[in-house]
Amino acid sequence: MSFPGKGLLKGLAVTMRTMTKRSVTAHYPDALPELPPRSRGVIALIEENCTVCMLCARECPAWCIYIDSHKDTIPATTEGGRDKSRNVLDRFAIDFSICMYCSICVEVCPFDALHWSPEFEYAELDIRELTHEKERLREWMWTVPAPAALDEGAEPAKEITTAQKAAERQGRPTP
Ligand code: SF4
Ligand code: SF4
Questions:
Q1: Is 51 close to ligand 2, i.e. is its CB under 6 Å away?
Q2: pLDDT value, residue 124
């Protein structure tokens, strides 16, 4: 049934209901949000794990990963052996002003060199500062949370069983 002022009364009822509820607005930065540990805040790099395979840079849809490298020659260790070559990382940078936080680079890295940190407070006044070079990306690693514990009943990680077998063979205490 409709009567004059019904809409107004309905509106007032909504106002009264919400006025008595507790506010859900968090007063950032005084109150920091409780983010899940695997939040996509910033990408961290373990430089030592990076083999310069370029997969991440090729797959990045925003083309915001910049990698420079050169080849080093490692002399043969045996007489008549062949010299080896290895890639040396000169530059690894991510431009967070165009990154869309899709996580493709982290997913495709075959060597676990890239990880997400939930840290998100790195706004800059100068957009150029949003390109984080490898030294800064390495520093973010300190803010990456430890991986979640394995599910109960899950198989132990391959690295652990391999280390245990090696220790048993050598008569050392198992890790
Ligand atoms: S998260 Fe996505 S857009 Fe950002 S650097 Fe990685 S692949 Fe590129
Ligand atoms: S995919 Fe991983 S190993 Fe390959 S260049 Fe990127 S960070 Fe380095």
A1: yes
A2: 96
Cα of 156 from ligand 2 centre, angstroms: 26
Alpha-carbon dihedral 157, 134, 55, 49, rounded to 10 degrees:
-30
How buried is 89 (Cβ within 10 angstroms: 0-12 exposed, 13-18 middle, 19+ buried)?
A: middle
CATH number at residue 64: 3.30.70.3270
User: What's the pLDDT tens digit per position in 102-157?
Assistant: 999 999 999 999 999 999 999 999 999 999 999 999 999 999 998 888 888 888 88
Q: Is the CB of 104 under 6 A from ligand 2?
A: no
The answer to whether the pTM exceeds 0.85 is no
Measured in Å, residue 37 CA sits from the centre of ligand 2 at 23
Q: Do residues 87 and 69 touch, judged by C-beta distance below 8 A?
A: yes
Asked, for residue 43, whether it belongs to a domain, the answer is yes
Q: Does any ligand 1 atom lie closer than 6 A to the CB of residue 93? A: no
Question: How far apart are the CA of 110 and the centre of ligand 2, in A?
Answer: 7
- Is residue 128 domain-resident? yes
Residue 65 belongs to a domain:
yes
Kindly state whether residue 16 falls inside one of the protein's structural domains: no
